[in-house]
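__Record contents__

***
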Amino acid sequence: MNNADAALNLELVTSDHGFHDYDVVGHPALRRACVPLDIRKGELFNVYHGESSKSGAKWLGNLKLSLEAWLSTQAAVHQAQAANPALTKTQ
């Protein structure tokens, strides 16, 4: 099973300070997602992953669908980088 196929168990931690703050429990890559209370489709929200990384994910109308799409995109990027190491080199 790769990270894109792993189950997403979401636990709402708080809805304070203008965000729904979720823990992603038991996922090998995702740790947390912070979704603004007033988010609209197509807007970005914060996704925390790995040991100390933060990225933006596009809101697709619900959290699970949005995170699954983000994970799928990340898997494709990693696959492309593995197939072509020149994609990961910095100049």
